[in-house]
Amino acid sequence: MKDLILEHVAKRFGDKTVLRDVNLVFPPDSVNCVMGPSGCGKTTLMRIIAGLAEPDSGTVTGRPEKISFVFQEDRLCEDFSAAANIRLVTGRSVTDGEIEKCLVSLGLDGSAHRPVRELSGGMKRRVAIARALCFRPDLLILDEAFKGLDEERKQLTMERILAEKKGRIIICVTHDPAEAEYMGGKLILLDKPEQRELGGSAERIIT
Amino acid sequence: MAVGIEILLVSPWTVAVRLFHLIFERDFWPTVFFSILRISAGFFLGLLLGTLLAVLSGRSSLMETLLWPYVTGIKSVPVASFIIISLIWLKNSQLAVFISFLMVFPVIYSNVLQGIKSTDPALLEMASLYRVPWKRKLFYIYIPAIRPYLLSASSVSLGMSWKAGIAAEVIGVVRGSIGEKLYDAKIYFLTSDLFAWTVMIVLISVVFEKTILFLLRRIFKRMENR
Prior knowledge:
The complex is a heterodimer of chains A (207) and B (226).
Chain A: E1 4-13, E2 16-26, E3 30-35, H1 42-50, E4 57-61, E5 67-70, H2 82-90, H3 96-105, H4 121-134, E6 139-143, H5 151-162, E7 169-173, H6 177-183, E8 186-191, E9 203-206
Parallel strand pairs in A: 3-7, 3-8, 5-6, 6-7, 8-9
Antiparallel strand pairs in A: 1-2, 1-4
Helix pairs in contact in A: 2-4, 3-4
Chain B: H1 12-23, H2 28-59, H3 61-76, H4 79-89, H5 95-117, H6 121-129, H7 134-172, H8 178-187, H9 191-225
Helix pairs in contact in B: 1-9, 2-3, 2-5, 2-7, 3-5, 4-5, 4-7, 5-7, 7-8, 7-9, 8-9
């Protein structure tokens, strides 16, 4: 697997510049946390990395074939079971046993065959994460994926994700410094142009 | 004018008695099944083709544009015009099939297409990111989205297919059909027969609607539980 490289990426929505000259390198086997204030372009950057949005200028090279994206919303098929939602993206490439094991590892014992609409918000979140993991991606993007999880579940989920980091690029968007610290790896700070203060050893990008 | 014969309006009791007698007549059930077979064939044809073409139109705007004048035409042209044209084109026995198809098709097509268009774009984006094949997308995303539209369209068009199908049989005087019985009742002033057959039509239509909707719901339920 090659490095995922962003060069001079810029994006505007109307008059508003959301991303300006972003240059980043994501090597394989890396964990990267992206932090920054609301509206600084974190989700837009993730969408560009995943190929869901096109930058106005700049290039993204080395984008892997298999990408999993845990969106801010769960994006689950509510009428189907958790297992069926995972099956939707994996097809027959994973066994029922593997799906069950993944759900159990995220604390979703006995939820595999329950319709998603009957699950709580936190459980739905973990089903979305299980779907992303079972897809066995080369690039895993987590956009505020732990939002709504209690501390215990959050830690369990982060542990599970970190156990899968080998051979993958993991990019985690978060507002919570504790989450970023737990996930470890490189910290990327996206800032609005008016905010200039640097913190820690983070890679800082003024958008 | 005959005295004591109920021509303008018959009492419910007379209708009930006449219906009871009709049920035991030799040609009653063959007549009922003749109409059920043809009208339901028209309904299923409309359901199948309406859904299929709506799915194709949902995938291709060219297809939607090409079908638009036909669907609009079918919706706007009076059913009597279609019946008379069909009398020239088709065999008498095929009339109810074609007319009930014409009633069902545009309703199913328009509703299913609306359902496809209202599919959650966030789910579709997720599916495209995970490169979900079209067949799986149809099963997991599109079918649940079109389900309420399809059920409501089926409920509306089932009644319409019976009304129009029987009207076609009356105008075409289709031999061996319920429509023919209504025509005879009109010719011979058999008002009690007219009401008895009308009650029978309503009963069949209600049973037909409930059965079809029950089956459709069962199919959707089984899909979810797969």
